[in-house]
Structures are given as C-alpha cells and as structure tokens.
Amino acid sequence: MSAELHCTAELLSRKGVDYRVIGSRAVELYGLIHPRQYDIDLVVPRDSLRSMPEVRRDLRDEFPRATLGTMPSRTIDFMPDGQSRLTYRELSVPLDFTTLSKNEIDGVQTLEPHTLLETYGTIGGCYRSKDNLDREFLSLLSVDDPDPAFREFREARERLYPEYKLAKFAANSLLRVIPSRLKLYSQNAIESRLEASCE
Asked: For the whole model, what pTM was predicted?
C-alpha cells in the first residue's frame, strides 16, 4: 500500500471521518498496480466535507503531489448510519443498506469489488479508456451481484438529463489535452468550491 493512502486513512480517522477510497487507488488495494498516481478519490458523508480542506492540507504537507478527490460525494450521498443514495439534481435513487459497507484492506476503507465496478460510469457519467483495465480487473474479482440501484440511476439520469453524458464526455476530452499542472489546479478549485458549499 502506498504511503499516501496510509497517511490519508490516518488523517481521516483522526478527524472521525467515515470514508471509502474508490477509483484506481482502491483497485490497487486489491492488487492491480498502476504507474505512479497521486490522486486519491474518496466518498465521504456530505457533512464531513467541511473537514476535507484541513485533511488535504495535512496530506500535502507530507506528500506535496498528492490530491484528494471528493467529487464522488456529489453523486454518492454516503450516509454511514442511514440510507445512502445516488443523486443528481432532483434524481435520487436509494442504495441497499449494505452496498457501501466498508471492506478494510491494510487499514484503508474501500468497497467490495462488485460495488467499486459499478462506481465507474456512475460517478463520471461515461467510461474513460484509462479505466478499462481497472474495470476488467474488478469484474474478475466480483462474485456478488451489484446493487440494481446503480443501473437504475444511470438509466434515469440519461433519460432525464440527456445533456449530462455529452457534457462529461466534453470535459474528459478537454482534461486529456490541458497541462497536468492546470488540471491539478482546476480539480483543487472545484473540490474547494464543493466543500465550501457545505458550510
């Protein structure tokens, strides 16, 4: 496990923030090693977003290139002690109570492989070619059926908001061509605005 993940888990635990690591860093916990990556995508309860600027700052003190992504918390309304939901604008689809149960690997909280697999395309709205290997790897590990709420949510979002997928595709295309420093700045600005809106 990377030192950044271990440090992130410690910082979040000290703050009392329940979390799940998702994305390619979570896939690494299951054994698929990626080229050096610095971003860590998280799902946290929305009321914990206020704590994230301090956690992000403390993590960067130790690992200056590390970034914490909390954007998934806009799609996954994670309620550790209640009914978690998938949300977009007025669309809200409840998840089974066990769907976001933690699977702890080396002291880091993540999701079961079948649930991680469903987050691809649900959070981002479209599949990126860089995620294909992660998705293939997770499908090999997945032994349980996914929560049908993920498919229901994706289908309803496409039906009710057809512009969403096109906008996400355009944004992903743009991100492929802009310099990485600008990409990092953009992500940090978006994360900060999201967290500030929760205060």
From this structure: 0.84
